[in-house]
Amino acid sequence: MPLSLDDDVRFLKHVGPARARDFEKLGVRTIRDLMFTFPRDMSDRSSIFTIAEAPENQPISLVVTPVSVSEKVVRRGQRRGRGGTRLTITTFEMTDESGGLLEAVWFNQSWLKDRLHGVRLALHGKAARDGKRLRMDHPQYEVVPDDAPLDSLNVGRIVPIYPMTGSLNQAAWRRAMAYALDTRLDLLDDPLPETLLESKRFPDLRSAVRAMHFPDDSRQWHNARERLAWEESLYLQLALLAARAHLKHDLPGHAFRLGPELDNRIRHLFPFKLTAAQDRAVREIARDMTSPLPMCRLLQGDVGSGKTAVALYAALAAVANRAQVCVMAPTGLLARQHYDTFSQYLENSPNARVRLGLLISGMTRTERQLALTRLKNGAIDILAATHAAISEGVEFNNLGLAVIDEQHKFGVAQRNLLVQKGVRPDLLVMTATPIPRSLALSAYGDLDLSVINQMPPGRKPVKTLLFSRREAGKGWRLVRDELARGRQGFVVCPLVKENADLDLQSAEEACRDLSEGELKEYRLGLLHGRMKRPEQQRILDQFRTGKLDAIVSTIVIEVGVDIPNSTVMAVLSAERFGLAQLHQLRGRVGRGREQGYFLMFSDFRQGESGERLAALLSTANGFEIAEADLGIRGPGDLAGDRQHGLPPLRIVDLVRDIDIIADARETARKTLADDPGLTRRDHIPVHRELVRVYGKQWDRLGMG
Ligand code: ADP
Ligand code: MG
User: Fold this and answer.
1) For position 624, what pLDDT does the model report?
2) Which residues line ligand 1 (CB under 6 A)?
3) How far is the C-alpha of 428 from the C-alpha of 404, rounded, in Å?
4) What is the CATH number of the domain that holds 144?
5) What count of other Cβ atoms lies within 10 Å of the Cβ of residue 342?
6) Contacts for 169 with CB less than 8 Å, ≥ 6 apart
7) Residue 266: its H or E element
């Protein structure tokens, strides 16, 4: 039988059924899997020293021969001669051509006495002088042939460190890998065309794979990694861009007409001039909406940056073209707030005939039925809604624009359900959770991106302060000062157990404590997800109309509540919240012209929680916060929000590899523009690889 990359690893020399099972636990079944399981780390053991010249306290390699061995047994942690653990100490005296002496010491590995007797050894570890002797504790070792030149997998080179499990120690990994590469690497074909390799100065696939495991030097390893990260990014970008192209070209959507006259009319509805960033976003959106291909755009901007105005612009453009608009938000509160905001803007319009509608849970049956009928008849132009909009039985007359607010609260599936309520409507998704550019290009790469990176004028940055329990009094004094000046505030309590009853209890307790203590002169209202929606709305209305000074709540108010007079927010046990959540909360205060204050109460200064709080103190910039979040949490979490079903990235590092990703995206874009089906001769291997990596998704696009 000819050798193949698809052979089971069990057929490799040095790998039996037991090791094969351990490999399988790591997802390695075939020899190809093995080759593409790259080390989790590299250890530089390339400098070999003699005993006489060995430096102390740094990792070194030596080639030595044992001279003598001794063993003693001690008890550790014993009391009055009883108990304690037995420890066997095996000490070899080693020498080498320099004539120096080295003590190599192992604990509880008595069997080494026989194993290492009279053989030449390569050792790796840190040496230290113990009196006159040089001594190395628990070195890694490898038996090397007597007179053959040193050709070792474990010393005298940069060695790979693999994930260990069961019988798979590092030596076993390296042996299996070296054997696999020696026997099968030649079977590996490079999907990237030679011209590309030349222009990017990338190594070919075989050299790259070998260098990932056994590089000659660190430069070779870096080049290999760069090539493989680029290639991985290329497949991802091809998949994302092709998916989008497929969506766009299948059927044309709405090509809206949006001339200067309409543009002017809409802009006049706003009581302010759009910021330069809003203006840019509006123009990008207008370009998409006037094109026959459906818009697929992500609008990103910090809380308070003015996304709602931009969304309204898009909505009115669609309505002027006799299409319906749905604005879907994650909570009823937020949906109603969109409804209210839109009505306020439209009041300014002398001859607006825009009909608004609301669809959220908690409406009476009659209210709901009426809304559904009006929607179907086309008697509603703009519907503000929750998930209720995507339930069965909701029919639009002519949905031309779908807007999704706080899109990270929705899955891709929900997004698609909304889009399917129309015929290829334009899609605008909005998020106040800034996404680092690398993620925007990868996890969100099927969307075009507009960014509002500028706040409306006259806004003072919110002051962020952190109080330990000991300093809490100072914090509450600041809250009282604000309330005494007629401003309003929020106190946010963390969720306790994701159990609404317990959470309610803790918020109730906090509310009671505060109303009898630190905030006893003020009118407090309790707001909680457990409460019925009309009750929530009643509390919010009281707050809005100034009948309450402060609201004590759980995170239900995380998104959207916009009350310009609220200038202070206090977050209890701030360490319990995520970085993005805290940043969102902070955006709720200081939305008017007054100075806003964001107070975090927490005793945590160390660890991940400490890092998060420190990040909030150090920057108000949402993008920096997002980068910090990515750094602290790692990309897995964030990308996981997407439920994209894309395979995990194995080589690309979303934090460090932004340039690689951007470059690969550009190549992907050009490639698909030239050859949308990847049918050209030099693209066929890339196409084949794409099908291998993205199998199902690729088939679904009809490109498999
Ligand atoms: P977002 O939806 O991004 O959180 P909003 O659209 O709710 O932000 O805007 C936040 C506040 O800023 C609102 O009170 C809004 O009226 C105001 N605003 C928006 N755009 C501007 C602007 N260009 N100039 C002045 N104020 C603005
Ligand atoms: Mg908003």
Assistant:
1) 79
2) 272, 274-275, 278, 301, 303-309, 432, 456, 562, 591
3) 6
4) 2.40.50.140
5) 22
6) none
7) helix 260-267
Closest C-alpha to 233, from 439, 448, 27? 439
238 lies in a domain? no
Report H helices in 407-545: 412-419, 437-441, 472-484, 500-516, 533-544
- Sequence-distant (6+) residues with CB within 8 A of 528 are 500, 503, 504, 507, 536, 553, 554, 556
Nearest Cα to Cα of residue 44 among 65, 66, 61, 29: 61
Query: Phi, psi at residue 569, to the nearest 5°?
Result: -135, 130
Distance CA 235, CA 228 (A): 11
Task: Give me the residue label for tokens 């390893």.
Answer: 221
**236 contacts 642 by C-beta, under 8 angstroms:** no
Name the closest ligand to CA 307.
1
- Length of the chain equals 704
Q: Quick one: 285 and 415 in the same domain?
A: yes
What letters, b where the CB count within 10 A reaches 16 and e where it falls short, cover 126-155? bbeeeeeebbbeebbbbebeeeeeeebbbb
Structural tokens at position 207: 């050299």
The predicted-structure confidence for 225-260, as pLDDT tens digits, reads as follows 999 999 999 998 888 887 766 655 456 778 899 999
Separation of 535 CA from ligand 1 center, angstroms?
27
Parts of the chain with a pLDDT under 50:
249, 559, 636-645, 701-704
Considering the domain architecture, whether residues 488 and 601 belong to the same structural domain is answered as yes
Q: Are 50 and 97 in contact (CB under 8 A)?
A: yes
The per-residue pLDDT for 282 is 97
Ligand 2 centroid vs 173 CA: distance in angstroms?
Answer: 52
Q: Cα separation of 704 and 690, whole Å?
A: 9
The total domain count for the chain is 4
Using most ligand atoms within 8 A of CB, pick from 279, 282, 300, 305 the residue to mutate for ligand 1: 305
* Residue 84 and residue 134 in one domain: yes
Going by CA atoms, what residue is nearest to atom 22 of ligand 1? Answer: 456
Nearest CA to ligand 1 atom 14: 591
Assigned domain for 581 exists: yes
* Closest ligand 1 atom to Cα of 310: 6
| 342: in domain | yes
Atom 15 in ligand 1: residue holding the nearest Cα: 306
Domain CATH code at residue 376: 3.40.50.300
Domain identity same for 488 and 613: yes
Please, are residues 126 and 136 in contact by the beta-carbon 8 Å criterion? yes
Regarding whether 18 and 70 lie in a shared domain, the answer is no
Could you tell me the distance, in angstroms and rounded to a whole number, from the CA of residue 352 to the centre of ligand 2? 23
| Tens of pLDDT, residues 447-502 | 888 888 888 887 788 999 999 989 999 999 999 999 999 999 999 988 766 666 66
Angle, vertex CA 396, rays to CA 394 and CA 399, nearest 5: 130
**In which domain, by residue range, is 65 found?**
48-154
Does one domain contain both 385 and 418?
Answer: yes
Last residue of a domain, one of 557, 591, 619: 619
Last residue of a domain, one of 383, 410, 431: 431
Q: Using the mean position of ligand 2's atoms as its centre, give its distance from the Cα of residue 278 in Å.
A: 13
CA of 405 to the centre of ligand 1 (A): 15
Position 642 scores a pLDDT of 40
- Residue whose CB lies within 8 A of the most ligand 1 atoms, among 275, 308, 558, for a mutation test: 308
Domain contains 677 = no
Q: Based on the domain organization, do 42 and 54 belong to the same domain? A: no
> 515 and 403 in one domain?
no
> Ligand 1 atom 18: the closest Cα is on which residue?
306
Q: Which ligand 1 atom is nearest residue 307's CA?
A: 3
In 3D, which of 403, 456, 440, 432 has the Cα closest to residue 301?
Answer: 432
Cα–Cα distance for residue pair 446/453, rounded to 1 Å: 21
Q: How many CB atoms lie within 10 A of CB 218?
A: 12
